[in-house]
Design brief:
It contains five helices and five strands; from the N terminus they run βαβαβαβαβα. By secondary structure, it is an alpha/beta fold.
Length: 128
């Protein structure tokens, strides 16, 4: 990414500890971090900062508006944004569900932060 390109990540997670941990991980990696604790708040944060956010990582089991619905709505509003869906539930077809909704990637919980960072960097590289 160039110096003046947008480099914001929206972390959508209802568990405050995980949300804060992910936010700190991405700040250390030099990203601007936006946070939301549910799907509705995520839509508001995204709408306000759409020009700055290049990637969303969202839990799927969110209150008010679920992660799959969030992915679908964001994808409709912004076809070029990168979206990662995440869940700790071992539902068999969850990855397919995320991809059908418009997500680019699915990452299971618990997070391995080095893998998460590697995935984000790969997704945001100019070749993707």
């Amino acid at each position: 990414m160039s110096e003046n390109s947008a480099k914001g990540i929206l972390v959508v997670e209802d568990d405050a500890e995980i949300r804060l941990l992910l936010s700190e991980v991405f700040r250390v990696e030099q990203f601007d971090v936006y946070q939301a604790s549910d799907g509705e708040e995520a839509l508001q944060v995204f709408a306000t900062n759409q020009d700055k956010i290049v990637l969303i990582i969202t839990d799927l089991g969110l209150p008010k508006l679920g992660g799959v619905e969030l992915i679908s709505m964001v994808r409709a509003a912004s076809p070029g944004i990168k979206i990662i869906g995440s869940s700790g539930y071992g539902k068999a077809n969850i990855r397919d569900e995320v991809l059908r909704a418009g997500g680019d990637e699915f990452i299971p919980k618990p997070y391995v932060t080095t893998e998460l960072i590697k995935t984000v960097r790969r997704m945001l590289s100019p070749s993707c």
